[in-house]
């Protein structure tokens, strides 16, 4: 594995219920990709190959728009190491899971 991405998707909505509905659709898409991921309160972390993860990041915006919002903002963090393995989500968070 050469990359890890954290994405926070912020759709422009009129209510919190609508925001949660759209974010849930984005998370459902991420789940469908088969990549290892972890949902947090503010962002979702995903790990895998760099090119594939960049496609996921792009599609998260499109999913939100297709869900009916007029605008979406996203905050992205990327760790990329093409010549070796990066720290996994499990390695970074396992000791903190209940």
Automatic annotation (TrEMBL):
Residues 5-96 form the Thiamine-binding protein domain. GO terms for cellular component: cytosol. InterPro entries: MTH1187/YkoF-like, Thiamine_BP, UPF0045_domain. Belongs to the UPF0045 family. PANTHER family: UPF0045 PROTEIN ECM15. This is Thiamine-binding protein domain-containing protein.
């Amino acid at each position: 594995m050469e990359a890890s991405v954290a994405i926070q998707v912020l759709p422009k909505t009129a209510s919190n219920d609508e925001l949660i509905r759209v974010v849930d659709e984005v998370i459902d898409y991420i789940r469908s990709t088969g990549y290892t991921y972890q949902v947090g309160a503010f962002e979702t972390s995903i790990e895998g190959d760099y090119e594939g993860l960049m496609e996921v990041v792009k599609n998260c915006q499109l999913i939100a728009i297709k869900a009916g919002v007029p605008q979406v903002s996203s905050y992205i963090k990327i760790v990329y190491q093409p010549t070796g393995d990066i720290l996994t989500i499990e390695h970074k968070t396992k000791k903190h899971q209940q």
